[in-house]
Amino acid sequence: MTPAARVAAAIEVLDEIFDGATPEKALTGWGRSHRFAGSKDRAAIRDHVFQALRCKTSYGWIGGAASGRGVMLGAMRVAGQVNEMFSGVGHAPNEVEAGEEARSISDAPRWIQCDMPEWMLTHFDAALGAQTDKILETLKSRAGVFLRVNAARSTTAEVIALLADENIVTVPVEGMNYALQVVENERRIALSRPYADGLIELQDTSSQHAILALNLTKSQRVLDLCAGGGGKALAMAAQGGEVTAHDIDPNRMVDIAPRADRAGVKINTAQTSELAKLQPFDVVFVDAPCSGSGTWRRNPAAKWELTEDRLKELTTIQDKVLLQGAQRVRTGGTLVYATCSVFDVENGERVQSFMKSACGFSLLSQTSTAPHLLGDGFYFAEFTKDA
């Protein structure tokens, strides 16, 4: 496919997404109906689509319409490639027509310039203050790819060398002993030997920071209450914790056992009905369901799907799981509440609510990290259960 044909394909996929399809469904459907497209074509189209979703309103403003064509026209105007991509030649999109004149982004409302639903700006401003617009600019770019070296099986230097043998270039993340950033051939990670051998896992640096801050020891029993696919459980197990994973939806945990086997660690799983029968834990980690506002570079469609009602519903869930986690902490033990959101309504306000309703816990620390070049937005609070 030519570069212009890839833009045309992205327009087609975006129109399906704007009509209600998820990005994955729209991209998969396009791939199945265009089997002639090679892997490089599909990757390029995917990149176009996700970047367009990150910058949907600003590109649409510059392109003159909120349609797939309007958004991609705006994207190509920003890139300075309109004439070569919108030529109407072969499989390229048709030439720019009357009524599709460019508009200056400086004339757009703030929410359009920031590429965020208007109602969300209040939440971002409350959390980020004067840095809001600068940080929202960060969310318009693609997130980096970061790895956690499995300390139970390898060293950072060894992994760097092994990946280099497969033409995957990585560099250490400053201040983190087991974190690497992939700077070349990131799409080969899942096919690499170090990945297959359990020497590395994909994990953002902010998430790694939260696990390292726990300073786990081999004698500690840990409950990962909202484990999902088990990324944090694996990191805690690599530190030597005796980890039990739980999720309200057991289907989300199906990959934990094979991932643990590959990593050479043991992770127990527990159903909701089994939790009350287990002895209280030294550490309970509550990675609560949230808006994911700190990770929208990776999942940009989520910011357009989130509603005020859903955000309110999430805060109710967060209160519930935090109280549930508190019930499983032993006296003198640690309770951690974490989200990948920057919204205070999901973070500090939830901690305040918990402290008013839960007796016997003291707040030790709170850490809030905004999205940045070397990591996602993340929040975690640490409590201790008083004697």
UniProtKB/TrEMBL annotation:
The EC designation for this entry is 2.1.1.176
Keyword list (alphabetical) reads: Methyltransferase, RNA-binding, S-adenosyl-L-methionine, Transferase
Q: Which family does it belong to?
A: Belongs to the class I-like SAM-binding methyltransferase superfamily. RsmB/NOP family.
Give the CDD domains listed for this entry. AdoMet_MTases (cd02440)
Q: Which gene specifies this protein's sequence?
A: rsmB_1
TM annotation in the entry: none
The chain positions of domain SAM-dependent MTase RsmB/NOP-type read: 135-387
The answer to whether UniProt assigns keyword Transmembrane helix to this entry is: no
Name under which the protein is recorded: Ribosomal RNA small subunit methyltransferase B
Q: What class of enzyme is it?
A: transferase
The terms under GO molecular function for this entry are: RNA binding; RNA methyltransferase activity
Q: Which InterPro entries match?
A: MeTrfase_RsmB-F_NOP2_cat, MeTrfase_RsmB-F_NOP2_dom, RCMT, RsmB-like_ferredoxin, SAM-dependent_MTases_sf
